[in-house]
Structure formats: structure tokens, C-alpha cells
Amino acid sequence: MKHKLFLSLIAVFAGAWLGVAPAGAADPPQVIRFGLAIVGKGGKPVASNGIASLAHQRQAIEAELKDDNIRIEWIYFKGAGPAVNEALANKQLDFAWQGDLPAVIGKAGGLNTRLIAADGLLTSTYLVVPVDSPAKTLQDLKGKRVAQFKGTNLQLATARALKVEGLRERDFRTINMDFPTMIAALASKDIDGGWFGSHAFDLQVSGVGRIVYDTRAVDAKLTRQTHVLVDGDFERQYPQIVQKVVDGLVKTAAWVSAEENREAAFGLWANSGTPIEALRAEQEGQSLARIYSPRLDDFFLDRYRATVRESRELGLLRGDVDVDRWVEPGYVNAAIDRLGLQTLWPVYDADNRPQAR
């Protein structure tokens, strides 16, 4: 009897050492809840950008989890990053697509999350004015009514741009609005300008607005980054499931990085209600392989360290975040190596220069 007990204990410890779950370990979840800090026009559950939304439409993660009989529940949030943070705090999400600033704020506030994949690098922020506005530059709007969606990652990008231009938020009559409200206010000319992401090109194509400032055109370090994160407890309990989710994201990133799939990707993003002409205009001259590289390299780390530092300087963040401990590149690196995609996405240094292999 003692001999059998001893062998059973050996089997358990050997299974733990080899990463094999012993009998009695937690069963895989039946449902995975994946939140996105964005929503399409009219509340459509589709995003106008991002790998995660493409993976949703292409059922890429579902394919990876088919043998596990796990269902994915996709949840799109009108309230953007702050709403995602609230859902994470209430344990209502397992994975989330989110921008840099709200994720940093959530982490500093005690959210147990891990960043596991990049999903949208070098994203610009645009200042849009009514189409017939006399304003031609950022300076022309000093003292005017300018709206922004505070708490989203556009807020920090806006603050960076203002600093570079020698301006501050108080130089404008700043109004906090979500994007649908801002779009309506711009169309009715209740505001003189608004800071937007990809909505800017929709407004320009439709003849409602005109872009007068583009942060990416000024400096790559004024851009925003987005990512996919996982709840820390979920990762600890189901690391193999996390790897499969990342595999689905990496395969989707490889698909959109192929030039021959560019128009097909725009077509899927256009299901959000954003005209395909606006999507083409935003990405004109841009490499989708660069923008949607899933790598968590030195450029990504540097931008998130800067987000922490600059957020503290601007009073947007009270606590602190150890970015190096927060970011986990192992899942993406494992997927890239296993799929033979090492040359598709170069590793970039902190100054956005590809590193020699």
C-alpha cells in the first residue's frame, strides 16, 4: 500500500515538473470571454481595426480551441478602455484588446493582468475640425472648444502632441465626450474640433470633417499602441489555453501582413460600418506587417515604459507599473518560432529601427 502511494506521489510530481496537469486539476473553461475596447457604428460588434477583431470574424481562435470544445464570447465596449478595466476588475473578462494608457491605469490600480501580444503599433491620433472651419493648424484652435475621450489611450497621445507643440490642455476649452457624441457634436458644429482615431478618416470621407493634425506624421513616438492582455489568474490556471489563443492571434497577424490580403482585411474591418474608403485612406502608404506585428520587442517595451513615465508626469497615474514584469513575450515568441514566421516581423529597437539578425 505504501509502495503504491509512493508511486502515485512520484507521478503527480513528475506531471507537475513536465507541465502535465495531474488528475483532478481544473478542467478547461467552457467559455472564454474576450473583450474589445471598441465598437462599430450603431453598436455593431465589429472593430474597424485590430488583429483581435479580424480573429473574431475569421474564427481563428475558435479553430485553435476546437478540440477543447471551448466557446469564445466576444464583447465590444462602447465605453472603450475604462469600461474594459471595470469588466476586468469584476472578473467578467479573461482576455481583452485595449490601448496603452487605460491598461497602464488599470495595472497601477491593482488589476491582475499580463500583456501577451501587440495588436496595433504606431497608431496615429488626429485633430479634426468641421469641414468649413477656418482652422488649419493646432495653434488656430487655441481658446476654442476641443473635445477628447478622456481615459482612453488617445488622451495621452494628445497630451504628448500638445507638449511637442508648446501647448497645454488648458490652452483649449477641453470637453470630455465619447466618440459617438463627439462625431455628432462635430457635425452640428457644437465643438470646434475633436481628437479622433480612425473615425477621423470616416468624417473626412463623408465630408463632415477635415484633419488638421496627425501625430504620426510629426513623430513616431507620439503614436499610440494597443495590445491583447490576459487575466493573471486565468493565465496561471490555463497557460496552454493562453498559448492557443495567442496562436490564433499570430496566425491572423500573419494573414493580414501578407500584401495580397490587404483588401480582404479592409473588407472585414468595414463590417464595423466604417467605409472601406476611409480605411484605405488611413493606412495609405503604411505597412500592415509593421503595424500589426505581434512582437513584444524593445520598441513596444519602450513605448509602454514611456506611457507609465509620462502618465505620472501629467498626473494621469498615481501608482507605478513595472513594464518588464508585466509583459510576457513567451507566448508570441513560441508561436512565431513554431510557425516559422521569424523573418516576417523584424525585431525593432526602442527608436523604431529594425535590429540586425
How would you portray this structure in words?
The chain is an alpha/beta fold and 357 residues long. It contains 17 helices and ten strands. It has helices at 2-17, 51-58, 60-64, 80-89, 100-108, 153-164, 179-187, 199-205, 215-218, 232-237, 239-257, 262-269, 276-283, 288-291, 298-313, 323-326, 330-339; strands at residues 31-36, 71-76, 95-99, 113-118, 126-130, 145-148, 173-176, 193-196, 209-214, 226-231. The chain has a five-stranded mixed beta sheet, with helices on both faces. The chain has a five-stranded mixed beta sheet with strand order 7-6-8-5-9, with helices on both faces. Helix 2 packs across helix 11, helix 4 (80-89) packs parallel to helix 5 (100-108) and helix 8 (199-205) crosses helix 13 (276-283). The protein starts with a helix and ends in an 18-residue tail after the last helix. Mean pLDDT is 90; it is low at 1-24.
**What's the quaternary structure here?**
single chain
Structural class: alpha/beta
Give the SSE order as H and E letters. Answer: HEHHEHEHEEEHEHEHEHEHHHHHHHH
Portion of residues in helices?
40-55%
Classify the beta-strand content into a percent band: 5-15%
